[in-house]
Each structure stands twice: as C-alpha cells, then as structure tokens.
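Quick one: structure tokens for this chain, please?
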Amino acid sequence: MPMFALLDRVPVLIKLGCLGLFIITFCFVIEAIRTGQIVQSQLNKLLGLITSITGPTQKFAKSGLDIDTLDKLRTEFSKRQGLHSAWWHRLDDHIEIYIAADDTESYFLTEPVRDLLPYDTVVSETYNGPLFGVIPGILTGSGLTLTFVAILLALSDVHYDKANTVNPITGIDALINGLSGKFLSSIIALILSIVFTFLERYWARRLGEI
C-alpha cells in the first residue's frame, strides 16, 4: 500500500517523464544491439568468405597463399559491397609475396590482422561508442531536470497573503505532500543510467573480443 500511495502522489509530469526515460533507454539499448550485430555479421561474412576459399585460417597462416587462391579471393571480394569487403581490401593492401629457396611463391600478410583491422576501424565505424557513452549522463540530467521542474511548478502555487492572519500561506500542503513523488524521475533516471552503462560496456567489450 505505501508504494501505491506514493505513486498516487506522483505528478502527471513526472509520470510522463519517467515513461519518456524508459522509452529513450529502450531505444538506445536496441540501437546498441543492432549496430553491434551489424559488426558481428560483417566480420562473420569476411571470415566465412575467406575460409570458404582458403580453408582453415591456421593453414595459410603458416604456409601462406598461392597465387590462384589469392586471385579467387580478390575476384570474390571484388563482387561484394559492405564493410567486410572494405576490410578485405585493407588486408589485401598488406599482402606481400615470399619466394622460398625452392622458388615456391607464397603470399603473406606483412602485419598481424589485429593491427590492420584495429578496434577503431572495425567497431567504431559502425558502433557509436562515444554516443552511447553520454547516454547515462543525459538520462541522469533529464531525471534531475524533471524533478526540479515539478518542484518549481509546485512552488508557483505557494502564495503568502499577509492580510490573512489565520492562514497566510496557501499551497504549501500540496507542495509538501507531493514532494516525495517529485523525486521519482531522478531515482528512475539513475537506475536506468546504471543499467544502460553495464549493458553497453558489456556489449562493447564483447565486440572488442571478436
């Protein structure tokens, strides 16, 4: 019952504001998941196309690629569009020929893949980490703003009439009785910002480990 009594004292402005905070949080969580899945999908396409032509990556990492296999890769990726194709061309720019003592030609990457496709290139181009990083602050600030706006509106109804010796102050009861409900938006905003931070950091860390 105390909880329902508290909700009854919450101003409509605060209720609508809390609903808005939930909607904003939900939308940005969905956006973080969506863009993260795009990165995962493009990486899977890149690896899938390479392994479908070359076989397991461990094999050519040691022995290199022959010219026929490399040409097949280049032909296949030339037909493709998207991030995975752009990432391949970045790798292709760093493929060099190595001639063994028996005149066998093999092709190798001159640098590790993680150096050629760093986090900023693979993830940050699609997954907007800086934007998601400021969302908790926006949620917290919005919750506090709603609280103070509700208090300001309640204060505007408080009046002092010195001519009224019996009850000179009017509106103070509504301000005090509904004061606790006006802080609900701040509490909700803090909770949502914490939850969003944990979810976003987990998702960003997971993408970095791909």
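Residues 2-208 form one domain.
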